[in-house]
């Protein structure tokens, strides 16, 4: 790696470690900054008092919100998700027609003034069904991911923190679940629980648990070795406090990203389960179901698959963008870079 | 002499490895008096940190094998359960670690971390704990503690963070403070400030301090009693004057010889070149049968050096706290 490359990296991470690296990487350039940093180190610790003094410390959550609002992508994705939630809650008010209202003779109509997204093979309004499907898809996504998030993170924390036989037992069990193809696993669970939307959520939740467990455990393994974990044990903190106060917040960024990705996959899984008749039961609308149904008519009526597909796409994209922004904002080191303060700047 | 606050006897620590048991600490004994500073010196891997982590049960339980005795305030520490050790951690024995960059949790404000340490030992209302945290920050010399408490660790310089670490260690008002290479990662000026700070707090609270370091300059400045470790054994101990003026063990002499003298009266070009000790410490899995320093020793005074572990015995003509583990008896020390 060239010295310039390493310098850029150190600047991006904006860690105090970068001070040394920067000083080494460019002894000649940035003279002013080097001396100012040098004087921070030597002239007692008063010099960088200036850096954060005179500015009120807002509460952590207020600051998180402020930073989030400053990021246009985060604002855009939040707005999209807000609209989706509103649609999910008030879908039956907003939809121009009922989800199962059939216009005989108007089957497979292309988009028009009266049917914005066209009609399907039963003559039902696709626009209304997309609006009403938002509720199902969002609920299934949120509940299923909620289940796998809680279960997976707990398992990953225990396995990663305690290690040894606890790790072996939990993770081998997770491997076992992971060995099944996701859909097959969900089908097996539904075969036991019975079909239906609620059970589909549980099944999807179980299927995605091992991923969360693995991501969490991997993250915990690196955090566990940090000196501050040992330091907090040395100051008398108990396991519970260490796990939830020190380990989890530091292990969170990959989990947050995994959550947003999994929301997308959960919506798609629900679609797949509904397609084979185990999830949402017809005639209830769900985006996944509609996408699957539309597939058969893609040559005659592209709108049947396109609009629910677009809805899934937009939702998934919004979750991912928001997740990315959240991860940046929740990491205090990144946060300093975003708000342009802190010793390293 | 007063009653020692911490008394360690024949402490052994082994690590189970794939090649067998690694003998990292072998039969270390020492006492810490209230208000006294005990310096433990030795090179990397000599077991000086591991020996103190073992006291608080901070070594990985499945891997480390600890035996011996360590009595703190009348209570045996070795072999205690995790729950029974917790009240002693922080409140009885506090610890400051080497690297202030990594020993603070990056996602919590320093105030929160001190509050946590304060509340780890008994319930206390949040506001009171917060006030105590600010008090501690002021005590360790951090200006404007109220607003500093809301800073994240990365917003502070290295010296500041080490002060915060000391504040956390003091939160439980410990009787013994273990400073594990506490100044190694800091530059010299800040190092001097931290040493002074710990010295001041020590005399105010009459805390016993175990100062782990490989910096003999620091030792000369702060220690009352010094323990020199090599390959997990104590090779020599004594008061700081005895040890620096009349080192006996070839290893101690080598260490002191490898240090430049600031007050050497001769001009630079006439001084003796700094000596080095060739070789590496022995493999802890396969310690030599005799003196562990034998492979690197240039003196090898006695046949027994190779076959027998020399016992730690008092040095003739010194106080009885000056002891060395060597068969070599230099003339005129």
Task: Tell me what you see in this structure.
Chain B: This is ABC transporter ATP-binding protein. Chain B: One of its GO terms (cellular component) is plasma membrane. The complex is a heterodimer of chains A (345) and B (333). Chain A has two domains: 3-52, no CATH class; 72-339, MetI-like (MetI-like fold, Orthogonal Bundle), CATH 1.10.3720.10. Chain A has helices at residues 3-13, 17-25, 31-42, 49-52, 60-70, 72-94, 126-162, 164-179, 182-193, 197-224, 227-234, 239-275, 287-295, 303-330, 332-339. The model of chain A is unreliable at 1-56 and 341-345 (pLDDT under 50). Chain A starts with a helix and ends in a 6-residue tail after the last helix. Chain A contains 15 helices and no strands. Chain A has 345 residues and is mainly α. Helices cover 73% and strands 0% of the residues of chain A. In chain B, β7, α7 (188-205) and β8 (208-213) form a beta-alpha-beta unit. Chain B is 29% helix and 22% strand. Chain B has two domains: 6-223, P-loop containing nucleotide triphosphate hydrolases (Rossmann fold); 233-324, no CATH class. Chain B is built from eleven helices and twelve strands. Chain B is an alpha/beta fold and 333 residues long. Classes of the chains: A mainly alpha (345), B alpha/beta (333).
Short structural summary:
The complex is a heterodimer of chains A (about 350) and B (about 325). Chain A is an all-alpha fold and about 350 residues long.
